[in-house]
């Protein structure tokens, strides 16, 4: 009959009677002067990522899929990629942006004059 201890690799370290699941990491004291700075920097970074996702969703609710995609791309660049749920949304929003009519730029009066329709009403 085999037991857990008999199956562990030879030389596996034990702590409090249990094998070590992870290697020893360097000890970081919370009294370290740079600790607060590192934590604050990480918190700001996470807040920027979350704000980018929030803006993407806000633009999507407005129907502005191009800006929503831009904000998703920013969030992906900051976080190292998109979570699966946002990858699905990105694909859906990209399809919606591709079929969404684009506003025509320029002066509508000049466009009518060039087409000859503007003079017909006079």
Quick structural overview:
This protein has helices at residues 4-7, 33-62, 65-79, 84-99, 108-115, 117-120; strands at residues 14-15, 18-19. The chain is mainly alpha-helical and 122 residues long. Strand 1 and strand 2 form a beta hairpin.
Polypeptide structure, described:
- The protein has helices at 4-7, 33-62, 65-79, 84-99, 108-115, 117-120, and strands spanning 14-15, 18-19.
- The chain is built from six helices and two strands, in the order H-E-E-H-H-H-H-H.
- A hairpin with a 2-residue loop joins strand 1 (14-15) and strand 2 (18-19).
- By secondary structure, the chain is mainly alpha-helical.
- It is elongated, with a radius of gyration of 29 Å.
- 63% of the residues lie in helices and 3% in strands.
- A two-stranded antiparallel ribbon has the order 1-2.
- The protein has a domain at 35-99.
């Amino acid at each position: 009959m085999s037991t857990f201890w008999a199956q562990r690799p030879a030389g596996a370290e034990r702590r409090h009677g249990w094998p070590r699941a992870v290697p020893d990491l360097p000890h970081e004291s919370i009294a370290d002067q740079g600790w607060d700075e590192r934590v604050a920097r990480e918190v700001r970074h996470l807040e920027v990522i979350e704000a980018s996702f929030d803006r993407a969703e806000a633009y999507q609710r407005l129907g502005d899929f191009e800006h929503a995609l831009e904000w998703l791309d920013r969030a992906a660049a900051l976080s190292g990629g998109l979570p699966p749920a946002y990858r699905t949304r990105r694909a859906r929003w990209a399809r919606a942006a591709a079929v969404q009519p684009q506003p025509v730029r320029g002066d509508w009066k000049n466009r009518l004059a060039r087409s000859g329709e503007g003079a017909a009403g006079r």
